[in-house]
Amino acid sequence: MSQVLALITSDAALLRCELDRVRQRFALDSKAVVGVGGWQDGQVVQRSYGVGVPLDDAWEAPESEAVMVASRVLGVGQGVDNGTQPFRFRQWLFAAAGGLEKSESIRERLREELPEFLQGAVRGPTWEEIAFAHFLAGLREIGRIEDSQLDPDTAATKLAAAAKAIEQVSASVGVSARPAFSLVASNGRLIVATSRGGARLSYTLLEGRSECERHELKEGETAVRDHRRLRSVVVASGVEPGDGWVALPDGATLAVDRRLSVTIR
């Protein structure tokens, strides 16, 4: 099984403060490998943590407007190098949550549908990476795989199409129940996410506040004003709705832009 959290914020310098606010709601499995990805100076920065490694450092993400934290329990033949999420292709990061019945059969069938250059880019044995490749294939069809100005609505449409492909292939290989999974993608300027089959995926808006344990804020300090102006949107798998968290409806797709405007379709 795998889990994912993605956050986009109005102030990259305070990203870690926002992660501190949500980390208790997002449990990282001690038996999983964990990956963290962000963007600094226009470049993707990634870190990975093997099984049994203390995970406090995983929350010390790069100073970035957007970040993705993902965990995955490795299967047979999978290692940290080819099984750790989030997966990367150029400026895109991607992670999935949940699990698929007959995942190997689904993976092979989905791989056959990919254009040749993306088949070659898939190095690992996971269905999550193949799902990422299907999302990228959709962007390539319209010539926008490297478009930094890509609008969230178009990205959301292509992510939903990748999810639909997984559902269709799952049925074609003899899986009777709807697969339960979530997909999340970001290029550092937007976040898109979708959930299928009853997989729990929730989101929340973090408003600014004057308290911050990390900075031990005092009233009147400049940092207090910065924290009060701060806003972020977070989407995470496995988080129970409540206390400001809202469940994404089954089959819906969420898109968040740099202005932190949220659209659900």
- The helix-strand sequence is EHEEEHEEHHHHEEEHEEEE
Low-confidence stretches: none
Share in helix: 25-40%
User: Strand-residue fraction?
Assistant: 25-35%
Total domain units:
1
CATH class: Alpha Beta
Tally the helices: 7
Radius of gyration from the CA trace? 18 Å
Major sheet description: 7 strands, antiparallel
The CATH architecture designation is 4-Layer Sandwich
Number of strands: 13
Q: Separation of termini?
A: 26 Å
Shape: globular
Within the CATH hierarchy, at the fold level, what is the topology? Answer: Glutamine Phosphoribosylpyrophosphate, subunit 1, domain 1
Main sheet: strand order: 3-2-4-1-10-9-11
Task: Find the structural class using helix and strand composition.
Answer: alpha+beta
Overall pLDDT, averaged? 91
Q: Any idea what the CATH superfamily is called?
A: Aminohydrolase, N-terminal nucleophile (Ntn) domain
Protein name: Class II glutamine amidotransferase
Organism: Archangium gephyra
Keywords: Glutamine amidotransferase, Transferase
GO molecular function: transferase activity
